[in-house]
């Protein structure tokens, strides 16, 4: 199997939840480190793992972000990382897969089904100043899932008149991964920029 290292500057996890029954609140996690083991001739043997810096949650509203970091939601003081590991389980087409991931939030782990889409591969130069140190092979994937936050102990809620709630329990997740071939990182010296 070939090892691909997540490029944390271009890998992100996005979530969205319903707010006040009428609209979506979206947020991002950016500091994601991980690796993918993948060979195309054995793609259903692929596996991946990583961790997300939960303290870096961003929704564009500092007060809301502070609340999401608190014990009401992610409790980042006690659980600063969201951890995941998973695998591909089925191939639905040339670029579409099913998968599953063990996702751990607040120290609670659950297995979650994934829809995975391969976005492509490209060869790019690795520049240091004006000096091209060599070629990097990059690949991209998008994975989507839905979870119930209550399953992970993220249980804060408030009711609104008429039987509604402030925040939905169902959360939609999108993980966008850009990964670079480990051999290329080591050969060019770029690995120094991508160590955990």
Topology:
Blueprint: E1 2-6, E2 12-19, E3 23-29, E4 32-38, E5 47-53, H1 62-69, E6 81-91, E7 96-105, E8 108-128, E9 131-148, E10 159-160, E11 164-165, E12 170-181, H2 182-188
Antiparallel strand pairs: 1-4, 1-12, 2-3, 2-12, 4-5, 5-6, 6-7, 7-8, 8-9, 9-12, 10-11
Report how far the terminal alpha carbons are from each other: 21 Å
Beta strand %: over 45%
Overall mean pLDDT stands at 92
Helix content: under 10%
SSE order: EEEEEHEEEEEEEH
Beta-strand segment tally: 12
Largest sheet, spatial ordering of strands: 1-4-5-6-7-8-9-12
Low-confidence stretches: none
In terms of structural class, how would the helical and strand content be classed? mainly beta
- Radius of gyration from the alpha-carbon trace, in angstroms: 18 Å
Question: Can you tell me the overall shape?
Answer: globular
Main sheet makeup = 8 strands, antiparallel, barrel
Number of helices: 2
Structural descriptors:
single chain, 196 residues, mainly beta, eight-stranded antiparallel barrel
């Amino acid at each position: 199997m070939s090892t691909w290292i997540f490029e944390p500057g271009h890998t992100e996890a996005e979530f969205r939840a319903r707010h006040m029954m009428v609209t979506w609140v979206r947020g991002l996690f950016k500091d994601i480190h991980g690796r993918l083991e993948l060979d195309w001739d054995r793609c259903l043997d692929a596996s991946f793992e990583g961790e997300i810096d939960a303290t870096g949650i961003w929704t564009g509203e500092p007060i809301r972000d502070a609340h999401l970091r608190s014990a009401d939601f992610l409790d980042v003081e006690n659980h600063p990382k969201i951890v995941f590991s998973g695998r591909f389980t089925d191939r639905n087409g040339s670029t579409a897969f099913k998968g599953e991931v063990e996702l751990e939030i607040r120290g609670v782990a659950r297995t979650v089904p994934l829809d995975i889409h391969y976005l492509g591969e490209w060869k790019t130069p690795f520049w240091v100043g004006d000096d091209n140190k060599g070629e990097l092979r990059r690949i991209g994937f998008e994975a989507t899932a839905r979870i119930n936050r209550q399953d992970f102990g993220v249980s804060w809620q408030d009711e609104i008149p008429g039987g509604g709630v402030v925040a939905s329990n169902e959360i939609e997740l999108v993980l966008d991964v850009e990964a670079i071939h480990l051999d290329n990182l080591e050969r060019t010296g770029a690995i120094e920029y991508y160590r955990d």
